[in-house]
Amino acid sequence: MTRLEGTRVLVTGGAGFIGSHLVDALLQQGPADVVVVDDLATGSRENLAGALRDPRVRLVERDARDLDVMDDLLGATDVVFHLACLGVRHSLHDPRENHEVNATMTLELLESARRAGIRRFVHVSSSEVYGSAQYAPMDEGHPTFPETVYGAAKLAGEAYARAAFRTHGFPVSVVRPFNAYGLRSHFEGDSGEVLPRTIVRVLAGEPPLIYGDGEQSRDFTHVTDTARGIIAVAESDDAIGRTLNVGSGADVTINDLARIVLSVAGATGLSPIHLEPRPGDVRRLLADSTAMRRLTGFSPRVAFADGVRELFEGMRDGGLPPEAMLAQVEERNWVQEGVPRA
Ligand SMILES: NC(=O)c1ccc[n+]([C@@H]2O[C@H](COP(=O)([O-])OP(=O)(O)OC[C@H]3O[C@@H](n4cnc5c(N)ncnc54)[C@H](O)[C@@H]3O)[C@@H](O)[C@H]2O)c1
């Protein structure tokens, strides 16, 4: 029996990339039900296609800023996983709305959940709150100097979560995932992430595009590991009031990433093209997950090269022709259409 067995769970943003994998993993923990609140801004019903076959899962297609809806739902919830967010590139072209969803909405939900007597609130923040690494690997005591409004708004959200714990003893945990990747990751529009975008280009016979010198690096964590980490936090009483990194502990540069994709694809004849750096692109992110391991026993399982192969094959065989995927990729997806770059 796990701690989540028989509980009523609510996942905001559960139709998104990480959220949908979290819902899949939660179902293995024996909850009584799982309510997903998602306005499908960047998520999709398709991400939950498997999970929705389970009668315990319900998708409520609503904006989580609608507090009347949330008050009703939270009245019948034991455990909240809060993932709903708008992403880093969105924050570059629409900082105000990004703040509204990532910071203000988090504050409102914490208040609403506290009034409803929720037993556990897991706030999913982001490694982007750190800014570029001042030392690596980065533990949770690393200074927080976010470089984007997204990172700043995520930091505000997690500060509100910690305040709810410190002021009222509300049982909150904050999780800081490092870059998640895997099946259902976004390649399209302003949600497009570097790995799936690179795979789309290579599948279409195009060379990878690298913004900057490619020596910027990330701690790429397989999304099933991220989901397991988030659940491990919810199940640990020692994690109440804590802020914990969830990462793989491996440093991968964008140049490495391009090389691995080209090698998995057998397309070693293609050479990456380097372009100007993206504004606000942090230089290095690498997790120290010692605290997480000590408190919850969590350790990542999926090696990067294996995860890249799985994603490459999933996208190749997913039914969408590479050209159709490429047409949905927005290069320079941090710029709002029609608005000139600063
Ligand atoms: N993907 C990563 O590498 C990564 C890394 C660190 C942290 N995170 C965090 O993990 C969480 C999930 O990210 P993701 O990568 O799955 O992104 P995603 O865009 O796939 O998921 C976010 C979900 O929130 C939904 N949403 C947005 N605004 C909403 C609103 N107002 N009401 C209801 N639903 C709304 C979207 O439709 C989407 O389904 C976020 O909080 C993000 O900050 C992600």
Write a compact overview of the structure shown.
The chain is an alpha/beta fold and 342 residues long.
Judging by the overall fold, what is the CATH architecture of the largest domain?
3-Layer(aba) Sandwich
The CATH topology of the largest domain comes to Rossmann fold
Name of the level-1 CATH class of the largest domain: Alpha Beta
Q: What overall form do the CA principal axes indicate?
A: globular
Strand content: 5-15%
Helix content: 25-40%
Q: Average pLDDT value? A: 94
Q: Output the helix-strand order.
A: EHEEHEHHEHEEHEEEHEEHEHHH
The CATH superfamily of the largest domain turns out to be NAD(P)-binding Rossmann-like Domain
Ligands (ions, cofactors included)? nicotinamide-adenine-dinucleotide
Distance between the termini: 54 Å
Question: What's the Cα radius of gyration?
Answer: 19 Å
Secondary structure tally, helices: 11
**Classification by helices and strands:** alpha/beta
Low-confidence stretches: 338-342
Strand order of the largest sheet: 3-2-1-4-5-6-11
- Major beta-sheet overview: 7 strands, parallel
The total beta strand count reads: 13
Number of domains: 2
Write up this protein:
This protein has 342 residues and is α/β, with parallel strands linked by helices. It has 11 helices and 13 strands. Strand 5, helix 5 and strand 6 form a beta-alpha-beta unit. The longest helix is centred in the first third of the chain and has 21 residues, at 95-115. The structure holds nicotinamide-adenine-dinucleotide (NAD). Nicotinamide-adenine-dinucleotide binds at residues 12-13, 15-19, 37-43, 63-65, 83-87, 101, 124, 126-127, 154, 177, 179-180, 191.
